[in-house]
Predict the structure.
Amino acid sequence: MSKSLVYESGLGSLLAGLSFEKEPQWLADLRAKGNELHNKMGVPTPRNEEWKYTPLRSLASVNWQSGEPGPAVFSQDPTNYAETAIRVFLVNGRFDRNLSEVPATAGLTCMSLRDAIYEKSEVADYLGSVAKIEDHTFAALNSACFVDGLFIHLKAGAMVEPVIEVIHVTSGDEMVIAPRILVVAEENSSAKIIEQYVSDGESKNLTIPVTEVILRKHANVEHVRLQDESETSYNVSLWETLQDESSEYRAYNVAFGAGLGRLDQNIYLNGRNIVTRLDGVVVARGEQILDNHTKLDHAMPDCNSFEIYKQIIDDKATVVFNGKIFVHQDAQKTDAKQTNQALLLSPDATINSKPQLEIFADDVKCTHGATVGQIEDTFRFYMRSRGIPKAEADAILVYAFAAEVLELISDEVVRERLEKRLYKKLGIDFTV
Amino acid sequence: MLEIKNLHAIVAEDDKEILRGINLSVKPGEVHAIMGPNGSGKSTLANILAGREDYEITQGSITYLDEDLADMEPEERAHKGVFLAFQYPVEIPGVSNTYFLRAAVNAKRTANGESEMSSMEFMKFIREKVKLLGLKEDLLTRSVNEGFSGGEKKRNEIFQMAVLEPTLCVLDETDSGLDIDALQTVAAGVNALRSEGRSFVIVTHYQRLLNYIVPDFVHILMDGRIVKSGDKSLALELEEKGYGWLDDLAASK
Ligand SMILES: Nc1ncnc2c1ncn2[C@@H]1O[C@H](COP(=O)(O)OP(=O)(O)OP(=O)(O)O)[C@@H](O)[C@H]1O
Ligand SMILES: [Mg+2]
């Protein structure tokens, strides 16, 4: 890569302060590879097409530290973030035993990734098997320097009823936090997972999570991700999922937080009869820049994928959507639908949206549509004529726009929490 | 209750004059019917009463309960009891009828210094209204007007009116597109709401509605002016003769 495409970055030097002695060889190899790749790719400038709208200059100039060596403390009431039976807190990327609660559940392993590396043989098989770190400099960095994270394993046939709540807390300033999440759902297993990324107060960190998800045959997983960090934070994430035959994966990306948030979410449909949802709700205000790159990779026949992205942009915020759908030659009878809608609430708000369909099979149904709009006056007047004040009418209309996606989430507790967060973000304070 | 004097109004966008000197006086408890050919300005008048911003008043005044209505925001008018049943009700995807109405009722209560209704109270309150109007309960959970048939939309307008309990009800062609049963339901809904303190301005093309909702006055609006007023027999006369015989009257005004 030519020098002009990267910023000078102090990120690589982070590694100097970290020591990973006595780790298994496979992990040492992964770290070495990550290190090498990150050093090669650096921090991309906007001249790099994939990072065109994600300005990383300010990020490159921070004097980043690696996450505190000892466990950081979370000062908030944890029950504000989790209310169901299985809850896991990762504070600055480290599994927190005091805050977490994982009751014994048939077929479920939910534990510190660090511990799992030594105790569970599956980790060696799966970790790094899905995430393509050669395409993602921050995921490469994560591989080189992650200290801990989470390992979720569902045994074949395990049906985990309560939703697994994962809260990633970042606290402190100018730290790079690199949680690593590995989810493996064996054949015929099912579970619901919500990951929330939150800040302890106005922390100013760079979070670079890598989440790898593997669904074996007939597995069924609902996976919600709420990105809700402070607007002084940076979050650059890679989330990749590999699906086997007849599995169903419903992924919802809810992006409200971080000053600069970038997610690359890729799903590989690697067997027949797969069902995939990849939906997003993005709300950006102030000067936030939220950039979501999604990819659905159809490798095999008879699969359906649905993607709805709803984006609400106010003030001077910028939202980027890049939606790739690849349908490979073998993937006949693919049915892929992509919809991408943006609602602009201010004349200074910006949306850059780019659907990118590449289809190499001939017998497929692929559609995509993108719309950009504003709040319609006829809707607004109708509501006002019933007594609903203008600001509230607007908030309700905006809410309804986003709710179309949130309503798809099957877990009621999760859905209601997200709806409440959406209300708060939009400044509405009433519910029915 | 409502006093309209020499009202002239234009379309704000293109300065086209639509209302050209309307005079109308509505007292508490009265029912006024407004009839007139397509494009004569009936909906414009109704929308101006509700506060639509597409129009600009160039002359004259609208006084409602001794206040200048023209100065009020649409929501303020609603809080003070003005209600418009739209000729073309708006579909709002994603907002349930219940949610919508509770927001409306509580906004009105708050504006009038009353406490908000709790979710439970409100549900009880609207279920009664649903029953009163002989509607189906699933109406409550459905999105406002979304996918409703023409007739269902009109019934929903009357339902909203029953819930909001307004003082001045303006109905713009609520009877258009209704089957005979629905027409009777709507009329019964209106009649149930008739009271000494509540007035109605009903825009309609058909005398038929006025058999069920008997008006105190009938006005004929042509080309932006009321050219003739009378009692309910005027509607019968119109039904028989059409509008042609009034052309000279309209031209001479
Ligand atoms: N917002 C607007 N912009 C442009 N023209 C308008 C607007 N509103 C009304 N008009 C015009 O003003 C005239 C009166 O319209 P209005 O809708 O008030 O008629 P109406 O009496 O309600 O007719 P109908 O019986 O068909 O409902 C029409 O010529 C219409 O095209
Ligand atoms: Mg009309």
User: Anything to note?
Assistant: Chain A has two domains: 3-270, 376-432. The longest helix of chain A spans residues 25-41.
